[in-house]
Amino acid sequence: MKRSPETIDLLLQRRSQLAGKLVPPGPTEKELETILTCGTRVPDHKGISPWRILVADRSTQDILHAKLPELHEGAPASLEKTLSKEAKTAPLLLIVSSSTTSDRAPRNEQLLSGAAVCQNIIVAAAALGYRSQWLTEWFAYNNSVKALLGIPTGEEIIGFLYIGSEESPPKERPRPPLSSIVSKLEL
Ligand SMILES: Cc1cc2nc3c(=O)[nH]c(=O)nc-3n(C[C@H](O)[C@H](O)[C@H](O)COP(=O)(O)O)c2cc1C
Question: Which domains can be identified in the chain, with CATH numbers?
Fold first, then answer.
């Protein structure tokens, strides 16, 4: 494998940007294809390819966001606000879902592979100079939203990935020290 110090720099520096602060430009068609190709090049137990990705441009996001209030029955209004009131300028939304119905790998692993798709998308977008935010809020778990998006029973939404450019870079956030996470296994 060829060494790639640039990739290490990218991983050490990448930060999410609040969806509401994402602005145009978004990825070009060619860049989007690269992002999606990187996104679907992930570990996938038994090669099931359980994932699907819906691409929503700005105008489709507006339609989706306008429908959310009538779909959010029972969800706290503050959660509704995150998407429908704040993500008004993000040029691109990718909705990643994973089917969980295969009996060839554990259900959880089909979901985890979908999470790997999300992370690869975020990293690939960052490598092309874009910011993003991975949101789920209430809408990722809402059956009416899933029906609107054509997501069948047995398929779960893993992430709403908002992608765009930054007006100003986000501040760094504290990261836990490795020592609080990593320890030597001694048996
Ligand atoms: C599965 C998943 C779901 C998330 N859902 C939300 C969410 O609904 N709302 C939110 O504010 N942040 C959510 N986040 C957190 C943000 O995507 C992001 O991690 C946070 O803004 C800081 O990210 P950074 O460490 O990449 O800068 C979620 C993260 C993950 C992994």
Answer: 48-169 (3.40.109.10)
